[in-house]
Amino acid sequence: MDKRIKALRRFALAITILNILGHTWLSFEQSIAQLLTALTTCYILEISFEVISAKQQKRDTVFKSGIKNSIDFLLPAHITGLAIGMLIYSNSNILPYVFAAAVAVSSKEIFKVTIKGKEKHFLNPSNTGIAVVLLLFPWVGISPPYQFTENVSGSLDWVIPGIILFTGTLLNTALTGKIPLILAWGGVFVIQAVVRSWWFGSENLATLFPLTGMSFMLFTFYMITDPGTTPSSKKGQFIFGGSVAALYGLYASLGIVFTFFFALVTVCIARGVCIALGNAYAALNEEKPKITANELEVTKEASV
Q1: How far apart are CA 60 and CA 30, in angstroms?
Q2: Dist CA 98 CA 264 (whole Å)
Q3: In the predicted model, what is the mean pLDDT of the chain?
Q4: Distance between CA atoms of 61 and 168, rounded to whole angstroms?
Q5: Pairing mode, if any, of strands 88-89 and 141-142?
Q6: What residues have CB less than 8 Å from 21, skipping those under 6 apart?
Q7: What is the mean pLDDT of residues 26-34?
Q8: pTM of the entire structure?
C-alpha cells in the first residue's frame, strides 16, 4: 500500500479520536455544529471539484471505483475539516468555519505548481484556511490551548502530550519521512527563542515556553509536516522547517499574533513561487534553439 494512503489513514484516525475525546471528555470550546459545518463544507467542495475535474478530463470519478477508494479520496477533506473545526474559535458564529473550509479546499485547486512532472498544490490547506480567516476577520481567534487538558490532572497532564509525541514521531518516522523537517523546525525555534530573549533583555527564557504547549506539539507533528506541501529531500526539509521557525521569530518580534499559522503560510507561498520561477526558467531554456557543431562551424566561416 502507498505510504501516502497509510499516513492519511493514520492521521485521519488520530485527529478523529482527538475530536471525539475533545467534545466528550476534554474541554473543546467549539460546538458540534461548528465542527460538522467545517467537515461538511470540506466534503461538499472536495466532491464537487472531483466531479468537475472528471468531466473536464473525460474520465470516471473516483466514486465509481468502490467505497474503499471513495473513503481514501475524502481523507484529506476529512482531516482539513476536523483541523479547522478544532483550531479556530468564533464564539457561536458558524460562517467563519464555512469560509475557512472553503478557502482550504479551494486553495488546492487554485494554487498549483508542477513538481516532477505532476501538478501539485503547494499551500497547506487547513493552515491556509485558518490563516486567511484570522487575517480577514480580527474577531475570530484560535481555540484556547487549555481546552486540550483542562479536564485532566495528575499523571494525565503528562500522558496526553506523551501520546501526541509518541504517535506523531511514529507517524513521521515510518510514513511521512519528515523527521529532518521537524528537527530543523525545532532546532531553529530554540535558536530564535534564545536570540529574541537576549535581544529584548528578558530575564528568563519565556520565549521558550511555547515548546511546552499542546499547540506547539500538534503544529509540529500534524500541521507543518503535511507530506503534500513540504519538500521530500532532506536538504529541502531542513530549509523549509528552519525557514518557518526563523520567520516565526521575526513575526513574533514584530508583535504579530497567531505566528505559527502566518509563518507557515508565508513559507509555503515562497516555496510555490520559487518552484514556479524555476519551472519557467527551465521551460525558457528548453525553447532556445540549439546550435549543432556543424552549424557553429558554418557560422564562423560566414563571419570570416
Answers
A1: 38
A2: 22
A3: 89
A4: 33
A5: antiparallel
A6: none
A7: 92
A8: 0.89
Cα–Cα dist 72/50, whole Å: 13
Q: What's the pLDDT score for residue 264? A: 97
Helix 234-253, helix 259-287: angle, nearest 10:
130
Tally Cβ neighbours within 10 Å of residue 52: 12
| Residue type, position 300, single letter | K
Q: For 87-145, write each residue's pLDDT tens digit.
A: 999 999 999 999 999 999 999 999 999 998 889 999 999 999 999 999 999 999 999 88
Residue whose C-alpha cell is 499547540: 215
Place of cell 460546538: 31
Of 213, 210, 215, 219, nearest in space to 241 by CA: 219
- At 50-76, the pLDDT tens digits run 999 999 989 989 887 888 989 999 999
